[in-house]
Amino acid sequence: MDFARKVVKALEVPHTHEEGVPSGLQFVSSDDLLPVPIEERTWTAFSYVAFWGSTVISVPTLVAHFLLTV
Questions:
Q1: CA–CA separation, 57 vs 61, rounded Å?
Q2: What end-to-end distance do the CA atoms of the chain give, in Å?
Q3: What radius of gyration do the chain's Cα atoms show?
Q4: What does the angle CA 7 – CA 8 – CA 11 come to, to the nearest 5 degrees?
Q5: C-alpha dist (Å) from residue 66 to 17, 47, 49, 62, 69
Q6: How many helices (H) and strands (E) does the chain have?
Q7: Do the Cβ atoms of 45 and 52 come closer than 8 Å?
Q8: What's the pLDDT score for residue 45?
Q9: Which of 5, 37, 50, 59 has a Cα at 20 to 30 A from 44?
């Protein structure tokens, strides 16, 4: 049992208490999850269209299309 506690302690991720965030949501507070500030955003309209196109025209979509049209 002591070994299991050591493993759990080694895998624990430290976190800090932030003001204004309910204690139940502390685990989802991360810099990676925060929106990017407007001055640091680099996506253009073309980026959004290209991303949308890459999700629409994908292998599973094409397979489904060909299976439904045959």
A1: 6
A2: 60
A3: 22
A4: 90
A5: 53, 28, 24, 6, 5
A6: 3, 0
A7: no
A8: 94
A9: 59
Query: How many CA atoms lie less than 13 Å away from 18 in the CB half-sphere?
Result: 13
Tens-binned pLDDT, residue by residue, of the chain (70 aa): 789 899 888 888 766 666 665 566 556 666 777 788 899 999 999 999 999 888 888 888 888 888 888 7
CA-CA-CA-CA torsion for 32, 34, 38, 43, nearest 10 degrees? 50
Query: Are 17 and 26 spatial neighbours (Cβ–Cβ below 8 Å)?
Result: yes
Instruction: Give the pLDDT score at 49.
Output: 93
Give backbone dihedrals phi and psi of 40, rounded to 5 degrees, phi first.
Answer: -105, 0
